[in-house]
């Protein structure tokens, strides 16, 4: 499957600089009212920069960073109030795809497609420390090795993964892999990398020492994002509107659940019991950069059984998604609305006993 070019950046910025707060917060009187039965409850929604592709909580949960595919790098917000704290510019091409943090919360890494570049950012000062050409093409998803000494970067167009040694800040090697690699999951053993292939709906297991690759699943769809808990690996498939689960010990894969149209980003609750899935909704026939006939959504399912636990109807192309490390908050982005939404997550027991929450009713609200 092919991809359209990213929206053009709005300006030509200087790398590593911050900008004054311009994002308004939404006053309590106008906050989104959740429908009856929905168990995941709204905290706030607020504007961000152009085309927020991904959202990520800092490890302490205080800030939410949004990568602006059509804007200037990364927007930094107070996670709950939405107040804009900074804008981090990433060179003259501006836009960013993904951002991840080290466990201590001191360092962030952001990817930039057009320049096949990874940017290292100091979280406290919000300034760029350095950047690196990853020697691939159209760089998207990033992942850190368990010991955080290696950074992996998926290169969409060159069909490979860059292996970056962080102490020396150099590309150690580039490993060929599935067509249009996107999602990455480094296994706890430090020797295995799982890669999601968008073009053919493939999920591959890559031996990092030998480069040998084994295909665990091929759906013919469009495998997009991976997340795991060390025992199980989950994959979203945009082409089949499904999420799959792999037992890492046996390598056996199965479909966990059918979800809404065009599933994107997925994340697990910290206890590994709940899976959250953002879904873009049906595309506009002319272009997916134009709002389509359906609202985006988030589907909440039991990570073991696939049983629906709740659902959220959101805005135009709900794409980014992240769960805070304490499991208390869920953040999502509406890609075409330039908006972030934040929700509280109830305990698993409340979700499990909630009779599916808003799941059954939400289907009727997806069509515009």
Any overview of this molecule?
The chain is mostly beta strands. It is built from 2 helices and 28 strands. The protein has helices at about 350, 360-365, and strands at about 40-45, 50-55, 65-70, 75-80, 85-90, 100, 105-110, 115-120, 125-135, 140-145, 150-155, 160-165, 170-175, 180-185, 190-195, 200-205, 215-220, 225-230, 230-235, 240-245, 255-260, 265-270, 275-280, 295-300, 310-315, 320-325, 330-335, 340-345. It has a 4-stranded antiparallel sheet, with no helix packed on it. A 4-stranded antiparallel sheet has the order 2-3-4-5, with no helix packed on it. It is globular and about 55 Å long. It starts with about 40 loop residues before the first strand and ends with a helix.
CATH class: Mainly Beta
Total number of strands: 28
Instruction: Give the distance, in angstroms, between the N- and C-terminal Cα atoms.
Output: 27 Å
Question: CATH superfamily name?
Answer: YVTN repeat-like/Quinoprotein amine dehydrogenase
Q: What is the architecture at the second tier of CATH?
A: 7 Propeller
Write down the Rg: 19 Å
The amount of beta strand, in percent, is: over 45%
Mean pLDDT across every amino acid position: 92
- Specify the number of helices: 2
Helix content: under 10%
Largest sheet: 4 strands, antiparallel
Q: Indicate the overall shape.
A: globular
Which parts are unreliable, with pLDDT below 50 for 5 consecutive residues or more? 1-30
Order of helices and strands: EEEEEEEEEEEEEEEEEEEEEEEEEEEEHH
Biggest sheet: strand arrangement: 1-28-27-26
CATH fold-level assignment: Methylamine Dehydrogenase, Chain H
């Amino acid at each position: 499957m092919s991809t359209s070019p990213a929206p053009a950046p709005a300006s030509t910025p200087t790398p590593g600089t911050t900008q004054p707060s311009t994002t308004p917060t939404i006053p309590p009187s106008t906050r989104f009212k959740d429908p009856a039965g929905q168990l995941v409850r709204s905290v706030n929604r607020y504007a961000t920069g152009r085309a927020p592709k991904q959202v990520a909580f800092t490890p302490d949960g205080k800030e939410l960073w949004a990568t602006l595919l059509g804007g200037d790098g990364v927007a930094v917000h107070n996670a709950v109030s939405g107040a804009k704290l900074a804008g981090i510019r990433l060179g003259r091409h501006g836009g960013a795809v993904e951002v991840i943090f080290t466990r201590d919360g001191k360092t962030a890494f952001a990817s930039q497609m057009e320049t096949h570049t990874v940017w290292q950012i100091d979280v406290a000062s919000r300034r760029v420390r350095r950047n690196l050409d990853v020697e691939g093409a159209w760089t998207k998803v990033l992942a850190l090795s368990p010991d955080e000494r290696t950074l992996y970067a998926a290169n969409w167009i060159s069909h490979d993964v860059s292996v970056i040694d962080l102490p020396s800040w150099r590309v150690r090697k580039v490993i060929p892999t599935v067509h249009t690699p996107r999602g990455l999951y480094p296994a706890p053993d430090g020797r295995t990398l799982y890669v999601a292939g968008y073009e053919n709906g493939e999920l591959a297991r890559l031996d990092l020492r030998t480069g040998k690759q084994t295909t665990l699943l091929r759906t013919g769809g469009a495998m997009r994002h991976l997340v795991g808990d060390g025992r199980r690996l989950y994959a979203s498939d945009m082409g089949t509107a499904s999420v799959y689960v792999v037992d890492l010990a046996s390598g056996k894969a199965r479909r966990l659940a059918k979800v809404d149209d065009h599933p994107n980003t997925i994340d697990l609750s910290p206890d590994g019991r709940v899976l959250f899935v953002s879904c873009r909704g049906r595309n506009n026939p002319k272009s997916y950069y134009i709002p389509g006939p359906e609202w985006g959504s988030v589907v909440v399912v039991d990570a073991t059984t696939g049983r629906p636990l709740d659902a959220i109807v959101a805005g135009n192309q709900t794409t980014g998604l992240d769960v805070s490390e304490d499991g208390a908050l869920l953040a999502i982005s509406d890609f075409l609305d330039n908006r972030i939404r934040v929700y509280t997550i109830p305990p698993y027991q409340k979700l499990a006993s909630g009779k599916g929450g808003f799941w059954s009713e939400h289907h009727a609200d997806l069509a515009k």
